Amino acid sequence: MIRVENLTKDYGSRRAISNLNFEAEQGEVVGFLGPNGAGKTTTMRILTGYMPPTDGTATVAGYDVVNESLEVRRRVGYVPETVPLYTDMTAVDYLEFMADLRHIPNSKDRAHDTLKMVGLENRAESYIGSLSKGMRQRVGLAQALIHQPEVLILDEPTIGLDPAQVVEVRNVIKDIGKQRTVLLSTHILSEAQQICDRVLIINKGKIVAEDTPENLQARLTGSERVALMVRGEMDELPKILSKIKGVQHVEPRPDGSVEFQFAPGQDVRPEVARTVIKSGYDLLEMRPVGMSLEEIFLELTREDKPARRKDRGER
Amino acid sequence: MRNVWVIARREYNQYFSTPVSYAVAFAMLLIVGLIFALTFFGAYQSAFQGGGLGGSSPAPDIKGIAGTFTFMLVLSIPALTMRLISDENRMGTLELLLTAPVQDWELIVGKWLGGLLFLFTVLAVTLIYPVILNIYETTDPNLQWQVLSLIILSIALVAMFWNLVIGKRMEALIILLGIWVVAIVAGILLYYLIIPGIDWGLTCSSYLGLILVSAAFLGLGVGISSLFSNQVAAFFVTLGVFIFFWWMFGFISQFAQGSASDIFTYLDMGAHFNNNLNGGIINLSDIVYYLSLTALGLFSGTVAVESRRWS
Fold first, then answer.
1. Predicted ipTM?
2. Does the domain at residues A222-289 carry the CATH identifier 3.30.360.10?
3. Which of A293, A278, A283 minimizes the C-alpha distance to A191?
4. Is the pTM value of this prediction over 0.95?
5. B93 and A82: CB-CB below 8 Å?
6. What superfamily in CATH does domain A2-218 come from?
7. pLDDT one-digit tens code per residue, A53-72
């Protein structure tokens, strides 16, 4: 549904994105991850026909975003990052207006239906200016959904929402993603982990990684990590652990536990448990520590890449 | 084309939810009303002293009101057009409109049409003045019939404003268009049936002039608004351009020589209205002049919006 080839955009002499290549298929939720200024919004604006690329091509639903911009815009729902809305219109009037622009018959009914979908049916007659940030966000989402688009492009859709609303909006997105294509940008990595089928990590206008959240995690974590929480004299513990065969990189964690690694396939955990108890400690907890998407993200987007150990020590 | 209407309708509604447009309408109608009352009073006083109506004093007509109205247009249209595109730009809603399936020219023309409909509404209120003039001007026994027309017009105006205030804007717009049609038909009928009254041909010509001037000013205003993301900047640039077109070109033409003088005379927006349309002369060249100014404004607005899509 979305096909991007060698997409490049320059703002004057500054290159915002360079040679971007990716695809997104129907029924897929693709997450666009990256630090501020990485080129996420620029890419989305090109895909929605707001601005043309300097070089390269992008097609949405089979239409070129530059030459068949109008066809693309008919098939795309878009929520910009700032969620621009007419604050002096009521929610339902605003949605009716957007529906009319898209030539939807019975636009008033559709506006009400869409408001119901985002859970705002009881605020339909409220002026948008009087709605909270989270509600406005949902009005923006309703605007993007009103024509049941084939492709939904959302720039930071859950920013500024309270936790309950975040869950609601994520569920709405997940639902839509079952039949349609959703491209969303975020810098909340757990969000990408929860709702995206695939994640593109972008930094300085380049895609640095592209995979499912699980695969990314597996690919970047070369070894298994375990956190160990015990009661007793902590100072000696790292030394004791280091002596066990197969245990690597022992180091204390800020929460008072100790972390170590072992190579996949050589499970040292039973041995560690026995040793800890034999040494007179009370074993309280032993749990695997996956490398979180945050860490993957930092790992991939860091400019100079120092040794992994140093990075973990900073944490 | 349908999008033009959708955007125009929203823009028309928008005017009734912003205080600026109420202030503009209030100021325009207050000044025009005051000028009407004063000239009317003056005309009748001198007519009384001169030995009755229809004597040596000239018959009161709509020219003074129309002239005052154009003066108010120069000052107030910048306030009406300043936010049209610039505010969308500032609030970011332009991004929504430009990523919706709307062509750039549809956006610009829709905004312009919305402004024009608002000015039609204000202009409709002033239709009451020619009717009042006609009643006092006529010596015909059909006076009751005319008072009746005044009452009907007043009721229609009140109904229109009531609908506007309570938010039934489409109904208000339909009543407004009804008022215009009835006024034109009634004007023609009055002119041929009840003589002497005021010159309804002259009145129609003046109103045509007002509509053309409004259209041209709004077109230029929309074009200028699309260049800015700041309302105040848009306001002052628009005001400056209007002052140039309405007064300065005529002023320059007096000092220019030969063909340069002709060019400036033709560019003088005020001359086309004051010398011709507001005197009952409908020339194709005047109409073409105003329509081409409108087109110029709308075209530059479209190009300004389109330029965002250039790489």
1. 0.83
2. no
3. A293
4. no
5. no
6. P-loop containing nucleotide triphosphate hydrolases (3.40.50.300)
7. 999 999 999 999 989 999 99
